[in-house]
Structures are given as structure tokens and as C-alpha cells.
Specification:
This protein is α/β, with parallel strands linked by helices and 238 residues long. It has helices spanning 52-59, 82-92, 108-118, 123-136, 152-164, 182-199, 210-213; strands spanning 14-23, 26-36, 41-45, 67-72, 75-76, 93-96, 170-174, 202-206, 218-223, 226-232. It folds into two domains: 1-92 and 171-238, Rossmann fold, CATH 3.40.50; 102-167. The strands form two sheets. Strands 6-7-8-3-9-10 form a six-stranded mixed sheet, with helices on both faces. A four-stranded antiparallel sheet has the order 2-1-4-5, covered by helices on one side. The chain is globular, with a radius of gyration of 18 Å. Mean pLDDT is 89; it is low at 1-7. Bound molecules: adenosine-5'-diphosphate.
């Protein structure tokens, strides 16, 4: 599936226009615009409560919009039936959340392999791909442990492997290092952005931490439900 052409002949991977989202009388998003290109790593910054997580959930089609549009790869996400949207999310998107959110009853390798298994990949092949990604994320030594038996840093790397294993084109990461100490956080960011760059995946990276944002190509700032500022990161000046 390829995107519709613009005057320049290319379309961003995802374009959100004038997004609105209300929780009761709270306008969590109040006309937010956002764009990300294929392979781009964009940090979404801003104070707590400004609308960053709501923006991420609306971009990923997890939350329904009260206004505006999200176009992904030529499709208007909000116009797709729920089943189509879920299918697209499974095939094209990867997710990393603050606390990893692994399934506690499954081993780490089973967690990483889960999306492939759900897509119909045979167990042996799914777990072999999962193990390769775990090695890349430097956690293949915990493949047979359950999430409760490994450290927070290891859990988050397992979660990153899980986000990458099915070859997503777009990864949504919401405060991915929020529960980690700075050393583990930096290593997790190096591994996440390194893997995304190698595979050509784009990353929407919600964070309030400037050290995490330093791994991005570009920063946007969310304030009062609007995306205010876009700053291109100049190579070598992070
Ligand atoms: P951030 O991620 O920048 O901390 P959020 O997107 O979580 O901000 O929240 C933006 C605003 O929307 C806040 O005022 C928050 O209290 C409100 N909000 C977010 N999610 C909900 C929800 N599920 N129910 C009610 N209010 C919410």
C-alpha cells in the first residue's frame, strides 16, 4: 500500500491534522497537527498533562477522535472499520510503554514471539525470530524466564524486542525509559533507535526527558493540546 502523492510527489508516513480529543470538559487535544516521515525518529515533548499520551493514542488509532484526521500510508485511519484498523495496527505498528507491559504468565521469548504467533507464524519460527531480536537487544539470556523474574531494564529490552519482531514501519514509544535508571535508559534508547534506523522504522517517542529526546531527529513540543514547535536536530549537535 503506498500513500497518495502530494505536489512534491511524496507523502509523509503519517499526517495528523487538527486533532481534537475531549475527556468530559477537558480538551486533551485542541487542534493538534503532527507529521512523521518514513524512518524518522520524532520526540514529542511537553509538560505533564499537555496531551502527549493522548496524541500518541490518537495517532495509533487506539483512541477515537472528536475531530480532525489521521492519515497513515494513504489511508484515513478514523475512516477504517475497527477490524481493518486493528489489522493495520498489528501489521504496521509496534508499541513500547513505560512499564513494558509484558504478559506475566508467558516467558520472555513467548512474549516477544506473541505477535508473530497471532499472525499465524509457527511456534518454532516465531521463537527463533524472537530469540534473534532478544540477542540484538542483549536479553537472550533471559529468554526462558517470566517477566517477574528479570530486572526492569531487561523487561524493557524484551518489550522493545517485542515491538520490533514483526517488522513494524512505525513504532510508538510512550516514556519508554520512564521506569529505568539513567544507564539502563540510555542503553535502551541506543538499542531502540539503532534497531529502528537499521530496519527503516519510524519512531514517535513521547518523553519529558531531554536526554531521551536527544536520540531523535526532530522534536515537537505539545502544550495545552496543541503541537507548538518543531525543531530539526542538526546532526552532531545533540
Ligand atoms: P501527558 O501525556 O502530556 O501527560 P495526557 O495526554 O495524559 O498528557 O493528558 C492530557 C489531559 O487529558 C490531562 O488534563 C489529563 O488529565 C486528561 N486525560 C487524559 N486521559 C484521560 C482519561 N482517560 N480520562 C480523563 N481525562 C484524561
Amino acid at each position: 500500500m503506498s500513500g497518495a502523492n502530494t505536489a512534491e510527489g511524496t507523502e509523509a508516513l503519517l499526517t495528523a491534522t487538527r486533532l481534537r480529543k475531549y475527556f468530559g470538559s477537558t480538551a486533551a487535544l485542541n487542534g493538534a497537527d503532527f507529521t512523521i516521515d518514513s524512518g524518522e525518529v520524532v520526540a514529542v515533548m511537553g509538560p505533564s498533562g499537555s496531551g502527549k499520551s493522548t496524541l500518541l493514542h490518537c495517532l495509533a488509532g487506539i483512541l477515537d477522535l472528536d475531530g480532525g484526521t489521521v492519515r497513515y500510508d494513504g489511508h484515513e485511519l478514523s475512516a477504517l472499520p475497527d477490524t481493518e484498523r486493528s489489522r493495520l495496527r498489528r501489521s504496521d505498528f509496534g508499541f513500547v510503554f513505560q512499564f513494558g507491559q509484558l504478559v506475566p504468565e508467558l516467558t520472555c521469548v513467548e512474549n516477544v514471539a506473541l505477535s508473530l504467533r497471532l499472525a499465524g507464524v509457527a511456534r518454532r519460527r516465531a521463537e527463533s525470530s524472537a530469540t534473534e531480536w532478544m540477542a540484538r537487544l542483549e536479553v537472550d539470556d533471559v529468554r526462558d524466564k517470566r517477566p517477574g523474574q528479570v530486572s526492569g531494564g531487561q523487561r524493557q529490552r524484551v518489550a522493545i524486542a517485542r515491538a520490533l519482531v514483526a517488522g513494524p514501519r512505525l513504532i510508538f514509544a510512550d516514556e519508554p525509559t520512564g521506569a529505568l535508571d539513567s544507564l539502563n535508559g540510555e542503553r535502551a534508547m541506543e538499542l531502540l533507535t539503532g534497531a529502528a534506523r537499521d530496519t527503516g522504522a519510524a519512531v514517535v517517542l513521547v518523553t519529558h526527558d531531554v536526554r531521551v529526546a536527544a536520540y531523535s531527529d526532530r522534536e515537537v513540543v505539545v502544550r495545552d493540546g496543541q503541537v507548538l514547535d518543531t525543531t530539526a536536530r542538526i546532526a552532531g549537535t545533540t
